[in-house]
Amino acid sequence: MHSQMQGGQWPLPERKGVVLMMTIVDALTLMIAFASLIVAVIAVSKDKK
After folding, report:
1. pTM assigned to the model
2. For position 2, what pLDDT does the model report?
3. Is the dihedral of CA 24, 29, 35, 38 positive or negative?
4. Is residue 2 part of a domain?
5. How far is CA 6 from the centre of its chain?
6. How many distinct structural domains can be found in the chain?
7. How far apart are CA 47 and CA 39, in angstroms?
8. 10 CB-near residues (< 8 Å, 6+ apart)
9. Residue 44 clears pLDDT 60, i.e. is over it
10. Which residues of 8-44 are buried (b: 16+ CB within 10 A; e: fewer)?
């Protein structure tokens, strides 16, 4: 989207590294969010029994 406007400023390998890092951070954030969600669901289902 706006990454194309910035394309001229950065050398390509560096930009790829930044994009890769962001992808890893996003994946970790998603995993942590899902993990906490699952833990919450398990805690609630244990409380109900």
Report:
1. 0.54
2. 54
3. negative
4. no
5. 22
6. 1
7. 12
8. 18
9. yes
10. eeeeeeeeeeeeeeeeeeeeeeeeeeeeeeeeeeeee
